[in-house]
Write a structure and sequence with these properties.
Structural class: alpha/beta
Number of strands: 9
CATH class of the largest domain: Alpha Beta
Largest sheet: 7 strands, parallel
Number of helices: 12
Oligomer: single chain
Helix content: 40-55%
Low-confidence stretches: none
Distance between the termini: 47 Å
Bound molecules: NADP nicotinamide-adenine-dinucleotide phosphate
CATH topology of the largest domain: Rossmann fold
């Protein structure tokens, strides 16, 4: 019987949590939406296929589970779907939910994603289940989405943004999640809400310089005007409400919303958080033109 359920297991953070638990030799159950993603999961976990909208499958996924890692994608259904998972976890007798939220989560936040996380956090707090909320800043893995632009055009595009970001390595978020899921303690774990950052604030201009070293050709940060950024996201198929929120998110980031660091990752893991240079070097092949 596997007592830990990792949701979003085929996604960015869920997949990294799966890997972090596998490295620690812990067997887990993984929830994925699509059957065809099951074979590629790290560590060959027990797999349940299901959607957060499908109560029957959720109940099946949670049967016998004590601890849950909860993550979902930003979007209009996020609050209802994460709350449905929490309600099903209550019914299943789950004792701990570790939820991915975001730095800035607040009912009055200027960014819809952050208000949505605040609503789920409140539902979780009222559920009676013990919970730990992870509030990461900007995930370094966002940079991977720009790899084709870096390789082909020497550009790191973004909506307007000159303020630095205390961006965090997604593998550090996963290591913290694994630590908490396994009952690890630490000064901050008992505080319930963990603000996770990298070791230092960096601008996208500085990231572009690092990418240039890695790619072997100059890379420039291109802060596109909002209309141009909007058009580029639409062309990539990003849903309209998400496009609008991403622009509001970058406006908040440009005001310095993610500029400050915390010591939480180091306090919990007993080692320094990894920096963006380390992250980019681990993913260097994605940014380098084909030989
Ligand atoms: N990116 C950032 O800088 C950042 C910063 C702070 C917080 N966050 C938060 O991190 C979360 C995103 O994490 P991520 O990077 O791991 O995203 P991701 O790669 O998109 O993963 C989300 C996972 O949720 C699964 N999922 C979505 N809807 C589902 C549904 N209805 N039923 C079952 N599974 C469903 C997806 O399944 P599929 O694999 O089938 O798509 C996917 O595996 C968001 O809540 C965001 O607010 C992100």
């Amino acid at each position: 019987m596997n007592h830990i359920l990792v949701t979003g297991a085929a996604g960015n953070l869920g997949g990294r949590v799966l890997a972090a638990l596998h490295r620690r030799g812990v067997p887990v159950r993984a929830l994925v939406r699509h059957d065809d993603r099951a074979g590629a999961l790290v560590g060959s976990p027990e797999v349940v296929v299901g959607d957060y909208d499908d109560h029957h499958r959720l109940t099946h996924a949670l049967s016998g589970v004590h601890r849950v890692f909860l993550v979902s994608a930003n979007g209009p259904a996020q609050v209802a779907q994460e709350c449905a998972v929490i309600d099903a976890a209550v019914d299943a007798g789950v004792s701990l939910v570790v939820k991915v939220s975001a730095h800035g989560a607040d009912p009055e936040a200027p960014v819809g994603f952050w208000r949505a996380h605040a609503a789920v956090e409140r539902h979780l707090a009222q559920s009676g289940i013990r919970s730990v909320v992870l509030r990461p800043t900007y995930l370094m893995s966002n940079l991977l989405g720009e790899a084709p632009q870096v390789r082909q055009h020497g550009l790191l595009p973004s909506p307007p943004l000159s303020a630095p970001l205390a961006m965090v390595d997604p593998d550090d978020v996963a290591d913290v999640a694994a630590h908490v899921l396994l009952g690890g303690t630490g000064p901050d774990v008992t505080q319930r809400t963990l603000h996770l950052t990298g070791p230092e604030p960096v601008t996208l201009g500085a990231v572009a310089t690092l990418l240039g070293e890695i790619a072997g050709h100059p890379v420039q940060h291109l802060a596109a005007p909002p209309e141009q950024a909007q058009a580029a996201m639409r062309a990539q198929g990003v849903a309209e409400p998400v496009v609008a929120e991403i622009l509001r998110l970058f406006a908040a980031l440009d005001q310095g919303a993610y500029a400050a660091t915390t010591t939480t990752v180091a306090d919990i893991l007993g080692r320094a958080p990894r920096d963006v240079r380390d992250f980019l070097h681990r993913h260097a092949h994605l940014f380098q033109p084909a030989a």
